[in-house]
Design brief:
Layout: H1 2-18, E1 43-45, E2 48-64, E3 69-72, E4 78-83, E5 90-91, E6 96-101, H2 103-134, H3 140-166, H4 174-178, E7 186-190, E8 195-200, E9 207-208, E10 220-223, E11 227-235, E12 247-252, E13 259-271, E14 277-285, E15 296-312, E16 317-319, E17 322-330, E18 333-338, E19 340-345, E20 348-353, E21 361-364, H5 366-369
Antiparallel strand pairs: 1-21, 2-11, 2-15, 3-10, 4-6, 4-9, 5-8, 6-7, 8-10, 11-14, 12-13, 12-15, 13-14, 15-20, 16-17, 17-18, 19-20
Length: about 375
Amino acid sequence: MRPVLALALLAALSGACGDPSTGAPETGPSPASAPAVAPAAVQIVAPQYRVRTTGIQTTGKIQFNEERLVRITAPVTGRVVEVLARPGETVEPGRRLLVLDSPDLGQAKADYAKGAADAERSSQALALARELFEVRAIAQKEVRDAENDSHKAVAERERAAARLRTLGVTEARLPEIAARADASTLLAVAAPRAGVIVERNVAPGQVVAYGQSDTPLNLFVIADLSTMWVLADVYEPDVPRVHLGQRVSVTLTCCPDERYEGTVANIADSIDKDSRTLKVRAVVPNRGRALKAEMFVRVAIESGSTRVLTLPQTAVQRRDGTVFVLVETGPGQYQSRPIKPGAEFDGVVEVQEGVTPADRVVATGGILLKQNAQ
């Protein structure tokens, strides 16, 4: 009996599981109307009008700001005894750069000592002549001759003093030179302004010359790197759109996301005959000293502005060569709509055709919806 009872119970249980009247739930697919994307993953925006600046896109080259550049040449002919500065150093006005041993300096000191002695002697002679004239011992003509000699001697002394000043000799050292207590031929060449040494063409033992060439050797070149010049090439059709004071945006090839802003400071008066371009110079602050001389850069010169309708770049979809956006037509319902895009700027895209400010466009999450969009 026991085997028969077990088989009966098993048959009863099997019939109960397959009977719809028992109310047991059945497993099946999700309804077609269930949302495929969570609402939080979709962001809806409205197209907005923004001002887009129009400009001239070209290339250019970085140069040192010539208005803040100083080239140091030899003030006298002599031999370099010591070099005290290196390229890349930041120097202040008065910083000693090199020391020269120059016979010219010794000659200039000797000329001043002689001029000072002659001026003193002629001054004494003039005083004596005036005393003799008062007692009628000499004629007035001799007094006038003594005055002329005194004036010439003073002028010669001042000429020699001016020569020493150009060599960096201070006024306080002139009495020692006049007394022949300072006859040194060593001359220290100092930096005339602050900046960074960007070039050095001198070494100890080298002989440098003064005034023997129309293009003297630059011993040092000191540049103020706080600003740089950008020379942009503007083609002839764009020349009428360029004006002084326009804003300029410079980007480097290595860092396209970094922009350096400046203004147009000079527009050339002639076209380059080889490239057929006009040189436009802009002064650009050198943030972080990232702009280096002779760099090639991309230059944008702002020439105007216009009001355009825009959408975020993330809202624009592309498929099979068609550019479109997803427009919300109802709760959870979206429609694919072709658009005509324009320029991209500041993270948005200009939309020339296809949407209006009244539309509601999917800004994020559209890649998940476009498969099911109508």
